[in-house]
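Troubleshooting log. The previous structure file for this entry was overwritten by mistake, so regenerating from the original sequence record. Sequence copied from the archived sheet and checked twice against the printout by T.R.
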Amino acid sequence: MEIKDNELLRQFEINTDSGLVAIEYSLQDRKIFLTKFVENDNEDEELHQEFITNVLEIAIERKLKVVPTHIKMIKFFRKNRKYQELLPPGLKI
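Regenerated output below.
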């Protein structure tokens, strides 16, 4: 999966057969706020999960804490407890 970090639009993007899928973000200090998930109606949920996982791997590489603000991101963190360490201190999901 090839993820493009579009810094101008502040979003991570992938191109799929049915179009563009993106995760919008905002950077503050050493935190990345995942603010919006832009998807197509007929996308595969497994693809979304893989996309989110890969974006979190990018955050790990960049040594960023992750603040999920979009409901899809919050649900992902609830299902995948191993990524709880990426949350800033004091933030519980």
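The first helix runs from residue 45 to 61. Archived copy saved in two places this time.
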